[in-house]
Amino acid sequence: MGVAAIKEYEFEAADRLENFHGNQLLYIGWDQHLMFCAPFCLPMPPNMRFGDIIEKVLPGVFGYHPDFAKIDWSKVEWLKSSQPWQADFNKTLAELGLKHKDVLRFRTPGLTGIKGSAS
Amino acid sequence: MDMKVSKKKLGLKEKYQHMTRGLGWETTYQSMDDVFPFVKYEGIKIHDWEKWEDPFRLTMDAYWKYQAEKERKLYAIIDAYAQNNGHLSVTDARYINAVKLFLNGISPLEYMAHRGFAMTGRQFPGVGPRVACLMQSLDEIRHAQTQIHSISNYNKYYNGFHEYRHMLERVWYLSVPRSFFDDAVTAGPFEFMVAIGFSFEYVLTNLLFVPFVSGAAYNGDMGTMTFGFSAQSDEARHMTLGLEVIKFILEQDPDNLPIVQQWIDKWTWRGYRVLTLVGMMMDYMLPKRIMSWKEAWEVYFEENGGALFKDLARYGIRPPKWLDQIEQDKDHISHQAWATFYNYAAACNFHTWIPTDDELDWLSQKYPNSFDKYYRPRLEHWREEAKKGNRFYNKTLPMLCQTCQIPMIFTEPGDPTQICYREVDYKDNKYHFCSDGCKEIFEHEPEKYIQAWLPVHQIYQGNCFNEGVDPTAEGFDPLAAVLDYYHLNFGRDNLDFEGSEDQKNFDEWRGMATKNV
């Protein structure tokens, strides 16, 4: 359903891909670590290697948390749109099929936030 | 020669009849449909506008006389408050941040309400509701002005008040109240009346005004408190109008029921989301607390609202959707919101802080099911880090909900450890939501919400830098550029309360007033 309107009512999406100067948006959240109040929104080029995001971008994003340094990335579980997803650090976002405004979550078994509070 | 006058004055009822209803007419040069072009497209059917009952029967002469008297008293008190340095008698300078939140987040909505009621009144063919909308429109602009006047006194002494108009259309968190009202004024006249007249003014307004006005009273802020009392008598009229609107629409045609019910569901949820800011203010920003957000919700929504919806059941109206989720959320949303402003304190025009030990204990006591388990460890960790000079400032932009525009901070109903993620594919794009409520509102009118001006996405599109700024230049600092665009002064308006200019000045000025220095 569209919208109740007095005449034709159709618009382009304000956040369509071509508005981001060659980047696409990737959302990324760390489950059970709600000290970061919300998942993050990152503008990334589609030819970026996924491993580079983990190794070069995420430390600046999540590094404040004492659990971050303890993450064993080989054991991390990934979800895309809340469904299990297979990460590959050597592939690019495009090769992994990640599209504009896709959302990833990662889970770090054994790490449960500040004093186990999921913070 | 004596003239025999049968009656000197019209009675109130006759006067109302002549001065309001008696002034309308059926147009003949142009069709009524052309003169009132917005009145049918929403699908609401009205058969007899004369059935509108105006509960107040106020005419303009009485309106001016009454309001002028009220306003004279209000300004006398505001002047006295200003001349006596009343700002130094508030509990402590942290309180002033609650006033900043009000001026920046709420007062512009009063002005938008003024515009909304003026536009809506213009669209109704019935004279009764047209006059009621006119008066509410005037009330709302008076409220905007009296709030600005009351609060301008604080702008002389404290940071963060100086550019509320400019900031409303730019600063990330202000897109939440702003988009709420923009959504309402861009709807049709009937939806606007249900959204603002009923859902906001009738169902939720007590949760907005009582906390701020009582909060002001409890914390020694006579100026804001007096404004609040002055507005109260108008609010009573607005609430009556809101209820009359619902009854009138529902009595006119049975086909109106499902449309109105959908609006009540939507606008109760939209309003509830905006009230997250009030919850946070009550639980964290008032040095002297009134009651907890949870208690306020129970009194003003669950008890009062419950009775209201029982009363409306005879029209076929059921309570708004998603109340079961709201019931679970009341233990959480104020803490989640304060954590958000603590995260993004560098990009905000008011200060945040970690509550004192006494205040943490108060929160533990008020929220026995949630605070110690989920939120206290986080706050204590932040406090420890701040002591070490490592205060947490989140520098990465958050993911926002497409509908309410709040960062995705809310948790799954029943699981406070898990962020709630919802998404929809529409045309060629993906859209994300904080809740089933926001998702369903989007799905009902996707074409409206795909246009949303989401602050985070706008920054990444390069639309939130001043003209001439080159984001590709070497050493470009995006945060500094965005704050410039906001007109937010780094180190004065933002960051932690501890060490702020507000804190220093208040202590020094109050010291001068109470000690021999």
TrEMBL record, chain A:
InterPro entries: Phenol_hydroxylase (IPR006756), Phenol_hydroxylase_sf (IPR043010). Gene3D superfamilies: Phenol hydroxylase. GO terms for molecular function: phenol 2-monooxygenase activity. Pfam families: Phenol_monoox (PF04663). This is Phenol hydroxylase.
UniProtKB/TrEMBL annotation, chain B:
Keywords: Monooxygenase, Oxidoreductase. GO terms for molecular function: monooxygenase activity. Coiled coil: none annotated. The keyword Transport does not apply. CDD domains: AAMH_A. Pfam families: Phenol_Hydrox, YHS. It comes from the Bacteria. The keyword Cell cycle does not apply. Residues 411-453 form the YHS domain. This is YHS domain-containing protein. It comes from Zoogloea dura.
